[in-house]
Amino acid sequence: MKLIIAIVQDEDSGKLINELMKNKFGVTKLASTGGFLKSGNTTLIVGAQKEKVDEAIEIIRKMCKSRKTVTTPTTPTTWSSGIYTPYPIEVQVGGATIFVIDVEKNEKL
Ligand code: 2BA
Prior knowledge:
109 residues, alpha+beta, Alpha-Beta Plaits, two-stranded antiparallel ribbon
């Protein structure tokens, strides 16, 4: 068994969960916050048989869109004369960041 951890944008999470559930995946949704943008995103955990992992990833790929956003970093990226100048930058937020990890044991009690 594998555990898929998928960090997705809030806008995509509802439809993604519906599609995963429709395809018989078990899903848990967690509210999360991105370290860079410091804004909300959604982390989904999906326990799946090894042979179903690619199917789950394909569903995530289909349902999640990459988007651009503008942010002003709170940590320095540009310095002028030793003074930190906050500067808006455009960042591309990916459709999903996915980790797949081995599950040693899974029990439902
Ligand atoms: P955030 O950390 O809020 O990052 C949002 C987007 O900002 C990132 O999109 C990336 O394009 C950009 N970004 C991140 N750090 C940056 C930096 N130091 N300088 C310039 N731009 C930067 P994604 O890479 O698609 O990541 C989307 C979200 O996925 C992240 O939100 C974070 O919550 C999660 N994530 C990404 N990589 C991760 C990792 N290796 N481990 C854990 N979570 C991760």
